[in-house]
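Exercise: predict the structure of this protein bound to guanosine-5'-diphosphate-alpha-D-mannose.
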Amino acid sequence: MDILITGITGFVGSYLAEYLLSEVPDCRIYGTIRWRSRTENLEYLNGKIKLIECDLKDYSSAKAALEQSHPQYIFHLAAQSFVVTSFHAPADTLSTNILSQLNIFEAVRALGMNPVIQIAGSSEEYGLVKSDELPITENNPLRPLSPYAVSKVTQDLLAFQYFHSYKLSVIRTRAFNHSGPRRGHVFVESNFSRQIAEIEKGLRPPILKVGNLTALRDYTDVRDMVRAYWLAVTKGEPGEVYNIATGKGYAISEIVEMLKKLTRVEIKVEEDPSRMRPSDVPVLIGDSSKFRKRTGWKPEIPFEQTLSNILDYWRQRVPEQPPAVQKIS
Ligand code: GDD
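Solution:
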């Protein structure tokens, strides 16, 4: 069985590849890589996958990747995924996320293939959710609050349209926040953990820089999330959309408190105005009963464990000495 993962060098992509290699017999995993992609997550895959140099924004490149891999399943994870960057570079976020998917769809059509394609949507699509709309079901209105969220709504709707117009076997997932070791350091739980690991090593003063602590998010461990993605493509119904979430929300302030309990260092918390967004999604708590009923999925790893694993990851990664040139973030 041939499987293509776009974004395989990223956080979720590397976990998904690991999961498939261990759980799916006789699968061959292909992944797209750009010349400037991060490669540190590839160390976990130990040469067991086939990398295809490809820029999905280029149609001919996307088409060549499909010709080379001839997949039965495509997991489309490649994206500009940081909400803050989308405010600084909206055009790049929109074009990367939308065009890449369009090119995959058009190449699939041109080549007459019929793979099952997972489109990785996001809870960010729901955006501004009212208090009487919680937990959020798939029927909630989409009220995106960032260019990133608009790009994900567009990807989602494009998938809906290609399913209806051309019968492409598309499964749309709307994943709520997911995390674990290897998570990019820009995201809140990973960023705070890295700061704490640096404080523990004396690399920064014992002050945790934070942004908006009032937002609520619903966290699934990445290892539970990639299991869900496989169930989505094997048991989900093409054309359908599924929330993937735990149903439990944590305020970002609670994450700070949970992390403080995992360290012996006394830490002060300080608001950093540069970490505030032009608009922030106040609350995302998901109802994933549609997905659970269809696939039998349920999350297994508690958030406390995820956070502890992330902190340990950074404890191993943060150097003992500050680098000669340090970028503080
Ligand atoms: N990044 C960051 N850094 N966020 C902070 C900070 C900080 O120092 N302080 C507070 N926050 C708040 C943000 O304002 C936001 O409300 C919340 O923490 C989570 O921010 P992120 O971790 O950046 O994630 P996100 O929720 O915006 O987006 C993530 O989840 C989406 C699914 O809901 C990303 O992984 C998206 O790609 C994903 O689609």
